[in-house]
């Protein structure tokens, strides 16, 4: 699903880019008149005409809504583009881990989900976030474990060590290195007004 979405996104961007490139090249090289395709109510542009002349722009700027509208539109477009860009970077195609059995692979996201589910099942663990990073024959597993209040890392470490050993056994040809970072969930405090 992820790969087909990435291919579809790239194909769409490439198609739109080629259409704009060909359209711009056609307008630049042939000097074709596009004025005939405009609606009848559109003003007839001269050879050096602009979309909004200086007087029209000054009239727009004199109104109270012009500047806030332009700023809000620019900020909204920038924020949306930034969010879209970050999501594109983070949701890229994740590598699969080839397993020793013929024609079998393991998705890194599935490995992360399985390790996270097992870690959260350990008594004393409030939540966990796991990230798997692959290199040739090495696999790095990074776990961020949030502990419940009044639970020490020493209480959950043996169970996490067993979980890591199971992961290493399951991914036998790979050398698995695990890093665990602990955080504590704060006590819920009563607020007095």
Structure characteristics:
single chain, 193 residues, alpha+beta, GMP Synthetase, Chain A, domain 3, 2 domains, three-stranded mixed β-sheet, 5 helices, 49% helix, membrane
Can you describe this structure?
This protein is an alpha+beta fold and 193 residues long. The protein has two domains: 89 residues, no CATH class; 89 residues, ANL, C-terminal domain (GMP Synthetase, Chain A, domain 3, 2-Layer Sandwich). Helix content is 49%, strand content 19%. The two termini are 51 Å apart.
The number of distinct β-strands equals 5
Major beta sheet summary: 3 strands, mixed
Percent helix: 40-55%
Backbone CA Rg? 29 Å
Distance between the termini: 51 Å
Tell me, rounded to a whole number, the average pLDDT. Answer: 82
Strand content: 15-25%
How many helical elements? 5
Structural class: alpha+beta
Q: Residue ranges: pLDDT <50 for 5 or more in a row? A: none
**Spatial order of strands in the largest sheet:** 3-4-5
Instruction: Name the overall outline.
Output: elongated
One letter per element, helices H and strands E, the order comes to HHHEEHEEHE
When the domains are counted, the total is 2
Instruction: State the oligomer.
Output: single chain
Protein name: Alkaline shock response membrane anchor protein AmaP
Keywords: Membrane, Transmembrane, Transmembrane helix
Transmembrane segments: 65-86
């Amino acid at each position: 699903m992820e790969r087909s979405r990435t291919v579809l996104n790239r194909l769409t961007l490439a198609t739109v880019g080629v259409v704009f490139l060909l359209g711009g090249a056609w307008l630049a090289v042939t000097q074709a008149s596009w004025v005939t395709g405009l609606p009848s109510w559109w003003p007839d542009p001269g050879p050096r005409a602009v979309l909004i002349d200086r007087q029209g722009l000054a009239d727009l700027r004199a109104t109270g809504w012009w500047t806030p509208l332009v700023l809000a539109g620019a900020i909204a477009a920038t924020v949306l583009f930034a969010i879209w860009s970050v999501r594109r970077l983070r949701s890229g195609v994740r590598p699969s881990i080839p397993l020793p059995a013929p024609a079998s692979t393991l998705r890194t996201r599935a490995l992360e989900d399985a390790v996270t589910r097992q870690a959260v099942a350990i008594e004393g663990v409030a939540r966990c976030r796991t990230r798997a990073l692959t290199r040739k024959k090495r696999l790095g597993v990074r776990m961020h474990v949030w502990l419940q209040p009044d639970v020490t890392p020493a209480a959950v470490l043996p169970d996490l060590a067993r979980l890591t050993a199971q992961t290493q056994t399951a991914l036998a040809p790979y050398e698995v290195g695990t890093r665990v970072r602990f955080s504590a969930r704060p006590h819920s405090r009563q607020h007095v007004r």
